[in-house]
């Protein structure tokens, strides 16, 4: 089903790209935005087109399309796609590092107000090529991936903050992104630092996580041997008929004032854990 949706979206991209190249006009009220777009395409010549999904008038997902580096087995897939969840701090960090001009463009305070729309849409897709731009009501859904349990998140952050006061090896203002496999029972499986270098911060996070989980109330199992609809878990795996082994990126920042920021994203992930061996009987959903 996911493959069908992806193929459908590719068809949509090809169709809209044709329209943009031949008929569409700029949707920006100020020509300054078009000048910024020209600079982006001149700087990053690998980019073919840019699709930004807005939700509640804020940028949510960014799709970057490039020509295929090698022929795909599916003849209808003619472009490579790189996806950023730009409402996730971790992906914003990657975007700023890899495409800083595009990052600056997307997060201008005035950008959304300068997009000319026929109706006051709050959810829409902004489509941009090197010459044209347009908007569409079409939105691609990434489904519901692995998440941090919102009922437990603040308690976990509070524990991170409280325990850190007593740490002898104190560091400040450091960022890690940890990619983790979330097992079907909600536990963290294989994991790896994919951004940052602080082993101390990683060890502190994992020690606090294990302490937090160990002190949760006993879990009630349902008849399928899964624990009470995830209510007691810090992380929830992807749900597709039942719990599935999932992938999640965890953004961890130790702020200058010695408190922690934690955010996570389980949609549109790219497996970066080195030497991970996928079990064909228990594949990762992401």
Structure report:
With 286 residues, the protein is of the alpha+beta class. Helices cover 29% and strands 26% of the residues. It has 6 helices and 13 strands. It has helices spanning 2-22, 31-43, 89-98, 100-106, 150-164, 199-214, and strands at 49-55, 58-67, 79-85, 124-128, 133-136, 147-148, 174-182, 188-195, 235-236, 238-240, 242-244, 246-254, 260-265. The chain has a 5-stranded antiparallel beta sheet, with helices on both faces. Strands 8-7-12-13 form a 4-stranded antiparallel beta sheet, covered by helices on one side. Strands 6-9 form a two-stranded antiparallel sheet. A hairpin with a 5-residue loop joins strand 12 and strand 13. The chain is globular, with a radius of gyration of 21 Å. The two termini are 13 Å apart.
């Amino acid at each position: 089903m996911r493959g069908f949706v992806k193929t459908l979206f590719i068809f949509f991209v090809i169709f809209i790209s044709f329209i943009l190249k031949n008929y569409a006009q700029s949707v920006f009220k100020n020509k300054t935005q078009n000048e910024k777009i020209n600079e982006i395409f001149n700087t990053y010549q690998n980019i073919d087109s840019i699709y930004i999904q807005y939700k509640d008038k804020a940028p949510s997902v960014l799709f970057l399309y490039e020509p295929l580096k090698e022929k795909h087995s599916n003849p209808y897939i003619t472009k490579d796609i790189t996806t950023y969840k730009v409402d996730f701090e971790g992906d914003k960090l990657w975007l700023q590092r890899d495409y800083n001009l595009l990052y600056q463009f997307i997060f201008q305070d005035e950008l959304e107000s300068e997009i000319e729309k026929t109706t006051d849409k709050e959810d829409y897709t902004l489509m941009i090529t090197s010459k044209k731009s347009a908007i569409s009501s079409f939105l691609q859904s990434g489904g519901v991936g692995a998440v941090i349990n919102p009922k437990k998140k603040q308690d976990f952050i509070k524990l991170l903050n409280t325990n850190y006061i007593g740490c002898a090896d104190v560091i400040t203002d450091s960022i890690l992104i940890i990619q983790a496999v979330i097992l079907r029972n909600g536990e963290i499986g294989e994991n790896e630092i994919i951004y940052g270098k602080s082993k101390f911060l990683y060890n502190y996070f994992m020690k606090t996580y294990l302490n937090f989980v160990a002190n949760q109330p006993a879990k009630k199992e349902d008849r399928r041997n899964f624990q009470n609809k995830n209510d007691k878990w810090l992380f929830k795996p992807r749900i597709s008929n039942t719990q599935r082994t999932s992938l999640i990126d965890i953004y961890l920042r130790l702020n200058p004032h010695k408190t922690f920021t934690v955010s996570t994203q389980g949609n549109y992930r790219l497996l970066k854990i080195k030497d991970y061996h996928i079990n064909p009987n228990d594949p990762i959903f992401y």
